[in-house]
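User: Can you model how zinc ion sits in this protein?
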Amino acid sequence: MKEARIEINGTLITEAMSMTIRVAVENFVSFLEENGLGDDEHGLRMRQLYMERIEELRTLLLRKVRCPSCRRPMDPGRVLCNRCVSLQVLEKDEEAKQK
Ligand SMILES: [Zn+2]
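Assistant: Here's the modeled complex, given as structure tokens:
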């Protein structure tokens, strides 16, 4: 499985680091489901808000990303989709021929 492409303060993290974040989030879900954060109003509210933010993160962590050039869906972790990479190679070949 390709992991989500995650940038932290301008640095693209490795796939192993991205996997670590995904696993940490899922373990936090297990913790919240098993233990919660206390039965008082504050604890229940905090648990609810964490679960809502986690659902947003899951949507991003598990979805296909879009190619920044053509906007087609592509695997996470790639810079461009296969089609755009092929087009770039063809364009470079054309430029080389014209020189
Ligand atoms: Zn593309």
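A couple of observations from the model: Residues 1-63 form one domain. Strands lie at 7-8, 11-12, 65-66, 73-74.
User: Helpful, thanks.
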